[in-house]
């Protein structure tokens, strides 16, 4: 029996400057076990049978490190000022035939293959889906001076990761609103929500942690060493 896969265009975001990492190289290109961080999730995206193309958003100096398998075509887009501007630049490059677009932060190297498939399958059914996890800690709102104003009901709260997968036209419609009203967002599902489409949260097998600080980088290195020795 052959399994059919929706045609997916991936947008791999690798255009950040990684200032919180305090390194001269952007964090997504730092070497982890001898491999640039961005290549870990690039390879996982390329392994999905329905992937048609990967649009990598990054500085041209790093184009040559991305070598896809022959079944996957590669395109490059220029980074924008904010994360959402980089997504927008990538979105302009995707093929008209794509049934779904999959946006992933290259700063999240531990993209689990099974989780990626679950998010894609859910987006196929629901129109838009993101990898996520119910929060484990209490979350409080503050007044800006670090005084708590409110404790949010934890049972409804989820932490949001990437990949985020959606029907391309939902994201395009959302961007029309975001750009017209000059709204800043921190993820792509917020854009889909602004256009009025439902977004399904998919609990993964593992957290898709984001490397932001030197401590995150050290932690990720330990995780990789552990995996390599298993
Ligand atoms: O800055 P932050 O960690 O939220 O970035 C998440 C991802 O988005 C990273 O992989 C980063 O390289 C990317 N990014 C981008 N263009 C920007 C800002 C961030 O591609 N202007």
Question: Your description of this structure?
Answer:
With 230 residues, the protein is α/β, with parallel strands linked by helices. The chain contains 6 helices and 11 strands. The chain has helices at residues 37-47, 83-91, 113-126, 168-180, 189-194, 214-229; strands spanning 8-14, 31-32, 35-36, 51-58, 73-77, 100-105, 128-134, 140-142, 148-151, 158-166, 200-203. The strands form 3 sheets. It has a 7-stranded mixed β-sheet with strand order 5-4-1-6-10-7-11, with helices on both faces. The protein is globular and about 55 Å long. The mean pLDDT is 95. Bound molecules: cytidine-5'-monophosphate.
Topology, pairings included?
Elements lengths: L7 E7 L16 E2 L2 E2 H11 L3 E8 L14 E5 L5 H9 L8 E6 L7 H14 L1 E7 L5 E3 L5 E4 L6 E9 L1 H13 L8 H6 L5 E4 L10 H16 L1
Parallel strand pairs: 1-4, 1-6, 4-5, 7-11
Antiparallel strand pairs: 2-3, 6-10, 7-10, 8-9
Distance between the termini: 33 Å
User: What is the 3D shape?
Assistant: globular
What is the typical, i.e. mean, pLDDT?
Answer: 95
Write the element-wise H/E pattern from the N-terminal end onward: EEEHEEHEHEEEEHHEH
**Widest beta sheet: strand line-up:** 5-4-1-6-10-7-11
Helix amount = 25-40%
**Class from secondary-structure proportions:** alpha/beta
The helix count comes to 6
Strand fraction equals: 15-25%
**Biggest sheet details:** 7 strands, mixed
| Radius of gyration from CA coordinates | 18 Å
- Secondary structure tally: strands: 11
- What ranges have pLDDT less than 50 throughout 5 or more consecutive residues? none
Ligands, deduplicated: cytidine-5'-monophosphate
